[in-house]
Every structure is written in C-alpha cells, then in structure tokens.
Amino acid sequence: AVVSTQSTGSVGMMWFNAAETWVDVRYSDDKSLMGRVLSSLLSSDDVSSIDTHFMSESGVLDLFLFLGPSPKDTTRQYSNVFGASYLPPMFGIAYHQCRWNYNDQNDVQSIDKNFDKYDI
C-alpha cells in the first residue's frame, strides 16, 4: 500500500497481486503521469516527483484507490476493504535490521562496529 498525504488531501493505493512483486521507488525532476493525476485530484501543483513502479511476475491485478480526503478517511477506507490491522505481539515490536540497507562492505563493517559500541 502507498499513501500520499499533503495539506490539501490524502490518497492511498493498494496493489493487490498474489505473485512475487517488486517495488522500485525513484526520485526524479520530471512529473510523472501519477504525479499529474495526484496534482489534479488534490488541486495542488506541489506534488513531489517520486515515481513508484510495481512489477508483478504474473497473476490477476486488483488495484484499489482510496481518495480520502483526509489521512483518517484513507485509513478507514482501506480498513473497510481489507479489515483493521491489529497490533503485533510485544516481541515483534523491536529493532529490525534489513539486509538490503547496505551500500558496500565498509558500510556493513561500520554498522557492525556500532552494534558493539551501542550494545545492540
């Protein structure tokens, strides 16, 4: 799910597909088609130019759009379709280290040293 919130409104989108899906987020100076659509829906010219590409290998795609207008409304609309989320168990609310965050080997070693330094 992707949510965009600004002072003029909020919109959400859920890409629903059972196949393996990749998400590519790219920052650019050009206003994409989605940026122009959001600018029109939100009556705003200051929509940032962040392009998000979803790529699914196969399967049927269901695309859900939630038009807000407020973040609370967008969340309510999402919950009406997919159900309300529940809190994870206490042991699941903790530090999470992702293997995709690293730039190079030096970055890994630096993070490892800081784990020791801060007793993580």
What topology does this entry show?
Layout: E1 2-6, E2 9-16, E3 21-27, H1 33-42, E4 50-56, E5 62-66, H2 71-82, H3 105-117
Antiparallel strand pairs: 1-2, 2-5, 3-4
In whole angstroms, how far apart are the ends?
A: 31 Å
Strand order of the largest sheet: 1-2-5
Helix fraction bin = 25-40%
Q: What is the H-and-E element order?
A: EEEHEEHH
SS strand fraction: 25-35%
Q: What count of helical segments does DSSP give? A: 3
Summed over residues and divided by their number, the pLDDT gives a mean of 82
- Got a strand count? 5
Structure class: alpha+beta
User: Which spans have pLDDT < 50 for at least 5 consecutive residues?
Assistant: none
In angstroms, what is the radius of gyration?
19 Å
For the largest beta-sheet, the strand count, sense and barrel status come to: 3 strands, antiparallel
Question: Which descriptor suits the 3D outline?
Answer: extended
